[in-house]
């Protein structure tokens, strides 16, 4: 079986969001999740720039550029949705009112540490931003990323080498190869071998003693 595309990763993650959940989708890849949430379930998307009950990304030609998410993408608003001050949005994020946040990552450690804002390269963004508040405030942090870097190194690691966004905050990692559950005592459990590569290959790719 082939590795999942980015849209397929988003679709796989969307299946695990329960009805009634309040969810923040981070900038970049996680915004794709909004296009795959089931329309027969009430799931409330929040954007850190001040939107609640955000819908899918706007179709080409139907954009309202006064209605954008935190990544400046044109979005839609579901019936009953609202938009409000940035400070109120961060109070929601920091106050434990979000069930899930979905973020991208440069690295996730086996203990659930998250590094997603800087690789230390020249010209990198200068601050951690709202991801820090989300990782600390949401009840569960889910990561959506490709498992390997362009040079074939695993982003799921023993210990993060990049500056941290949050400590022991990640609960689950969705990748193009598999879905990984981060459990206590540094246990990383494979809960879905999406690409069907098998236990030995996943252990080789990650360099971790994975549990199945």
UniProtKB/TrEMBL annotation:
Query: Matching Pfam families, A to Z?
Result: CoA_trans (PF01144)
Checking InterPro entries in the record gives: 3-oxoacid_CoA-transf_B, CoA_trans_fam_I, CoA_transf_AS, NagB/RpiA_transferase-like
Protein family according to the UniProt entry = Belongs to the 3-oxoacid CoA-transferase subunit B family.
Arranged from A to Z, the UniProt key words for this protein are: Transferase
Protein source organism: Orrella marina
Entry protein name: 3-oxoadipate CoA-transferase
UniProt key word Transferase: yes
Q: Which NCBIfam families match?
A: pcaJ_scoB_fam (TIGR02428)
Gene Ontology molecular function terms on file:
CoA-transferase activity
* Cross-referenced SMART domains: CoA_trans (SM00882)
């Amino acid at each position: 079986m082939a590795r999942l595309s980015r849209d397929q990763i988003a679709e796989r993650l969307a299946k695990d969001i329960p009805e009634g959940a309040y969810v923040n989708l981070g900038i970049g890849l996680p915004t794709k999740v909004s296009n795959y949430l089931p329309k027969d379930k009430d799931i409330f998307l929040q954007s850190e720039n001040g939107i609640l009950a955000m819908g899918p990304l706007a179709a080409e030609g139907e954009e309202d550029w006064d209605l954008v998410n935190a990544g400046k993408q044109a979005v839609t608003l579901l019936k009953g949705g609202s938009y409000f001050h940035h400070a109120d949005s961060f109070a929601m994020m920091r106050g434990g009112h979000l069930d899930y946040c979905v973020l991208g990552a440069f690295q996730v450690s086996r203990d659930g540490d998250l590094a997603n804002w800087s690789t230390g390269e020249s010209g990198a963004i200068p601050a951690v931003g709202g991801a820090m508040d989300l990782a600390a405030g949401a009840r569960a942090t889910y990561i959506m990323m490709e498992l390997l870097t362009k040079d074939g190194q695993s982003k799921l690691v023993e210990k993060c080498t990049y500056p941290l966004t949050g400590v022991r905050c990640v609960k689950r990692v969705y990748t193009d190869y598999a879905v990984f559950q981060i459990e206590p005592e540094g246990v990383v459990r494979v809960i879905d071998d999406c690409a069907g590569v098998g236990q030995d290959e996943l252990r080789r790719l990650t360099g971790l003693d994975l549990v199945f």
